[in-house]
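Quick question, first post here. What does this chain look like in 3D?
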Amino acid sequence: MIHYDNLLGKNVSKLLSITYCRLIKRTFESNTTPMMNDKTNIKILLTDDDEDDRDFFAEALEDLDLEYPVEFCKNGVELLDRLYDTNLAIPDIIFLDLNMPILSGFETLQQIREDSKFKYIPFIAIYSTSATEDGVKNTFGLGANAYVVKPIAFSDLKKLLKKVIETDWKEKLADARIESFVIKV
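> Answer (accepted):
Ran it through. Tokens below.
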């Protein structure tokens, strides 16, 4: 169980089951790696309503033998609740599905980027099954750092995650352009 002290900016206390935001490996420590310069302890959070996609993602990271803490939320509201919890560190990478119930990826991204409390989230990657022109333009405009197209094959997902994690984002984000925004394998 995770003890929650802050729910969407309100002082509310409640216990959350592991199904709310499932933690794998270890919990996040303090965020000391802005812009992911130190690749030894990257904190990753995937928000996706599809349990199979969350499991597929976790298995791919585990198969790559990456020892990064990984956390999962099922929708945008859960992600925002999680980010407002001052007892947990801000993740280095948030993978955000676009098509989710309750609060879509678009709406979630907009709320995150508009809130000054989250200005230190170095990297938000849209994690979607397709890359429509409107979706790419809208998420780029809302402040996402990359648009990652979900692959179908497990081996491709491993390659994709490795590519995203190993990229020199400090350099890439210094010259953010929509032409290099979409990442595929």
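The first helix runs from residue 51 to 63.
DSSP finds six helices and nine strands in the chain.
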